[in-house]
Design brief:
alpha/beta; 5-stranded antiparallel beta sheet; 17% strand; globular; binds alpha-D-glucopyranose; binds calcium ion
């Protein structure tokens, strides 16, 4: 594998609205991020991906962009952005922005002009179809946020426009070469500014199956998941190859794709030596037990499912590229709340999950707050919820006959708000996130779970992540940690997740994925214990007796 500058790095995702507020308006901002660069550096972070900070009406928290060339005033100014780039550079850190080009905002000037003249130049930037009131819509696809993907064009009774996401996120028409050039120009403009690269949002959606057609309904709403159309849409690869050629490749930019549905054999096209992207996220674990009926019908993930899914991905990627590993992001529940049963969610089990993920082959991304083991939030009323996705799923759950209480508790587990509550810096008012009124209610556990407390305590989750990062960076072990092959160990042993990383050395990564102690036989003698989430380790020549949720990395 050709080595790249970013392979040995550690990445960190910032959800800017909730990271750090510098001016007391209750919303995190760029100056807030700048003020925490030293914190991130101390943790060991190199690459920082910031969720969208462009101008936006915030219908989908910035994933609805009204001007790609400016910073939304709630986050600061372009001067602040330039300062952030410069301050990061000083610290040898890299800033990665979100690239949201499947859609823009309905408040973008392109869409406004399209509404004025749907048959003109800008009408062709979108998917606008003729459809009189009362006539059937062009197709029956269901938007990701529920309901039809079609919405009436403002001021026209005989036109509708396509939005795979929220109605305030009209899809851009990638079939139009003029639109594509506009996008490439914008990408290059940012790269010229010194940005290291992009996380590429929802990118598999840019190719639609045309002409629009219905699929058999898969729920009582008469609609059908967009996934059906994506399976049949051909030509995505031409768009992606063109984009890479016209933009990223010229700059050797770092890119990480949000790709959910690669087909067998496609991986090298995405992230191989000449792939469209540097890397992409492994989302396979997120997809475990997903139900086509909606969130309310989704079952909890078992350790066996988790292990099998992770291993399958590692095997798929070996020799085909470099994947990015996560346990959570701004769209998912907190990993510790999702992959560990609530009653067993402790610092020990949180470290085990983090360690199992971090030691995999690939680029580790830490999502803000993961380094202190932030958990899902519990809200008492749907009125406290901000996330549009949760609101849609709540309706779906009610329509399926759940009581309002059951619907709330079912959808809250998956709510995107779980990961979006403000960062917990300390135990002061509002967790030190803001001096004002936070835009989203904090998780009330911040008095116990916060950065200040954990930094002071040597055996905290924060220090555990710090140790993992140091191992990844250490001169002695970095080659094995970065490039060593992942080989499952004792795959059949229940509630045990163990794998080798074989390279310059042979490392064995072992997590006892249950509350009870468990015996594990060893293939050979332990040379050295590199990481341990407890302060004891019971072992002899050929056996380990791991405590509940104990996690170790040993050298053999
Ligand atoms: C991606 C983002 C998500 C957003 C959607 C639409 O999935 O991660 O937050 O809602 O795209 O842009
Ligand atoms: Ca602010």
């Amino acid at each position: 594998m050709q080595q790249k500058w970013w392979h040995g790095k550690t990445a960190y995702q910032i959800y800017p609205k909730s990271f750090c507020d510098s001016n007391g308006d209750g919303i995190g901002d760029l100056q807030g991020i700048i003020s925490k660069l030293d914190y991130l550096k101390e943790l060991g972070v190199d690459i920082i991906w910031i969720s969208p900070i462009y101008c936006s009406p915030m219908a989908d928290q910035g994933y609805d962009i009204s001007n790609y060339y400016n910073i939304d005033p709630i986050f600061g100014t372009m001067d602040d952005m330039d300062k952030l780039l410069a301050e990061a550079k000083k610290r040898e850190m890299y800033i990665v922005m979100d690239l949201v080009v499947n859609h823009c905002s309905d408040e973008h000037e392109w869409f406004k002009k399209a509404c004025e003249d749907p048959d003109g130049k800008y009408g062709k930037y979108f998917y606008i179809e003729k459809c009189k009131e009362g006539e059937p819509l062009p197709c029956n696809w269901r938007s990701y946020f529920n309901g039809s993907v079609w919405e009436k064009l403002p001021n026209y009774n005989d036109r509708v426009y396509l939005h795979l996401f929220h109605k305030k996120q009209p899809d851009l028409n990638w079939e139009n070469p003029e639109l594509r050039q506009e996008i490439y120009k914008m990408i290059n403009w940012w790269l010229d500014k010194g940005l290291a690269g992009f996380r590429i949002d929802a990118i598999v959606n840019i190719k639609k199956e045309l002409p629009f057609k219905n699929y058999p309904a898969d729920r009582d709403d008469g609609l059908c998941s967009v996934d059906r159309m994506l399976e049949n849409a051909n030509g995505l690869h031409d768009f992606l190859a063109e984009m890479a050629r016209e933009t990223f490749n010229k700059y050797d930019a770092f890119t990480v794709g949000e790709v959910f549905n690669d087909k067998p054999g496609e991986l090298p096209l995405y992230i191989g030596e000449n792939g469209y992207f540097s890397t992409m996220f492994d989302f396979d674990e997120k997809l475990i037990n997903v139900s086509s009926d909606g969130w309310y019908a989704q079952q909890p993930v078992t350790p066996e499912q988790y292990k099998a899914t992770v291993f399958a991905c590692q095997e798929k990627v070996e020799g085909n590229g470099f994947i990015s590993n996560i346990i959570e992001n701004h769209d998912q529940p907190r990993g510790v709340s999702h992959y560990i049963p609530k009653s067993e969610c402790t610092e020990t089990s949180k470290k085990m999950l983090g360690g199992l993920n971090f030691m995999l082959k690939g680029l580790p991304f830490i999502y803000q707050g993961q380094e202190i083991g932030m958990e899902n939030v519990s809200y008492n009323s749907i009125d406290e919820v901000d996330d549009i996705s949760t609101l849609g799923e709540y309706k779906t759950a009610l329509a399926a006959g759940l009581t309002p209480e059951d619907a709330l508790s079912a959808v809250m587990h998956f709510s995107r708000d779980n990961a979006r509550t403000p960062m917990q810096w300390n135990s002061n008012t509002n967790a030190g996130f803001t001096t004002g009124k936070p835009w989203l209610t904090l998780n009330s556990n911040y008095t116990e779970i916060n950065v200040d407390e954990q930094k002071k305590r040597d055996n905290s989750i924060w220090h555990f992540y710090h140790e993992l990062i140091n191992l990844r960076r250490s001169e002695e072990y970095c080659e094995t940690v970065i490039y060593g092959t992942t080989i499952p160990y004792l795959k059949e042993q229940k509630n045990l997740m163990a794998y080798y990383r074989k390279g310059k050395q042979t490392l064995l990564v072992i997590g006892n994925y249950q509350n009870q102690a468990q015996q594990v036989s060893l293939p050979s003698k332990i040379q050295k214990v590199l990481i341990n989430n407890l302060d004891c380790l019971h072992s002899n020549e050929n056996k380990l007796l791991l405590q509940g949720y104990q996690f170790v990395v040993i050298e053999l």
